Model the fold of this input.
Amino acid sequence: MNSQNAGDAIIMSYADARLRELFPKQEFLHLQTHGQSSALERARADTLKILCGTNILWRDMRQPLAWPLLHLDAYRHSVCLMAAGAAVKNGVPFEFTQESKRLLKFILDPHALHSVRDENTKRQLATIGITNVINTACVTMWKLTPDFCKTIPTGKHRDVLTTVTDYGKDPAMDKYMLETLSRHYDTVYLWVQHEEDRAYASALLGAGNGGLRFVEHPKAALDAFLDDHASTIDYFGTRLHAGIHSLNHGVRSMVVSIDNRARDIAKDCNLPAVEREDLPKMMESLIENPRETKIVLPQDNIETWKNQFASFNR
Done:
């Protein structure tokens, strides 16, 4: 809601699906986490709020990009985290400000078990005394079981889907990635996860966009593309959730790590990922050589987090 990044729509679609499995008898009210809205005033103090995914935990929770909470009393000890992550800049762990520490301890349910997407986020919450936390990986990955991963092809396909990231630019490496993809695949498609990605990719490749074909911005356009092309494409790009969404469609994928999110998840769960700076020495072999997808999920933690809500459906 109110986000210009379609990656947020991907996260929310998976969170919503899993929550509707957990709470088949409950009604849902969605409250946005991007920008001010009078809808935030509809939150009820006696109602559980589940904060779904994304980089929602900031060093300074009061800054403009953080969650714009209104009427804090309605959130007192009633928020439970679902695969939330910490917004780390330049890969450097941070210390929460004292205001953020007080805010998180005020809104988070002290009796709930909170779910975070990686060990780094769990450690950072522990530094402010919030230890009722388990690492469940990102909710977008919960269906990537060993049996499902065995269905993902190991060999290269003829076409490829890629992405670039407008806020995390490395023109030299991003251009190298796109040009290498064009040499190894018949057709290169680029999903415009954020509208600024289109202009950035066009600037990298110049006139004619190097033969690049754009998949339009809305998540629905990506869904339609994957429904039609999943059996003939690979994914290789910098957008994390476009890569995970592709994996969920059975697409052989490789995420190019440009920040802590893919890096942390890859470390914990064996997500197929490569550092952007390593592309010149690794990219061609990652494209051409067969490779299996072997996601390692913290399945026990996922089930433990889910099971705490069993009483809601009685």
User: Anything to note?
Assistant: The chain has a mean pLDDT of 90. The two ends are 31 Å apart (CA to CA). The chain is about 35% helix and 15% strand.
